[in-house]
Amino acid sequence: MALLEYELTVDENGNSKVTCSVLEVDKNDRIRFKSNNAKSAIVYQKGSPFNDPKGPKAGVPFPVGKKATPAFKVAKVLNSQQRLHFDCGVLRKNSSSTVKATPDGFQPWGGGDGTPPGRNINNGG
After folding, report:
1. Distance CA 78, CA 63 (A)
2. Above pLDDT 90, what percent of the chain?
C-alpha cells in the first residue's frame, strides 16, 4: 500500500493548512491520470512504473485527454530515491505554435511531476 504523509501546519495567526504527500508507492498500488484538457498527455522519461501494455511507457507520449484514464497497477516499489519523472504537455498534430513539439507531436508545458509525486501534491503538471 502507498505511504501517504499528511503535514498539519499552523502559522502564528492560528491558520492551519494540511498538505498531503505520497512518500512511497508499492507494487499493485493503482494510479490513474486526469485532465480537463482534451489534448493533454504525459511522457515518463527514464522508466515507467507500469507493466501494463496499455499504460504509460518510458519515452512515449501517453494521451490523458479530457477524462480520467483507467487505473494502472504499479509494478515496483518507488520512493523519493527511486522516483520516475514524467513531463506534462499536449499532443499536437502539425502544430504552428512557437513551442517546438517532438516528432511524435508531444509539446511539453515545461513542468511535470513523478511517481511518487514531489513533496507537494499540488506542485503543477
Report:
1. 23
2. 52
Q: What is the number of domains present in the chain?
A: 1
Q: How far apart are CA 88 and CA 90, in angstroms?
A: 7
Question: What nine digits make up the cell of 29?
Answer: 498500488
Residues of the chain with pLDDT under 70: 93-103, 119-125
Q: Does a structural domain hold residue 47?
A: yes
pLDDT score, position 73:
97
Residues, the chain, total? Answer: 125
Spacing of C-alpha 12 from chain mean position: 34
Q: What is the pLDDT of residues 86-116, one digit of tens each?
A: 999 998 865 444 445 566 788 888 778 888 8
pTM exceeds 0.70, yes or no: yes
**Is the dihedral angle over the CA atoms 45, 47, 48, 49 positive or is it negative?**
negative
Q: Which domain holds residue 85?
A: 31-115
- Taking the mean position of all CA atoms in its chain, how far away is CA 40? 12
DSSP 50: B
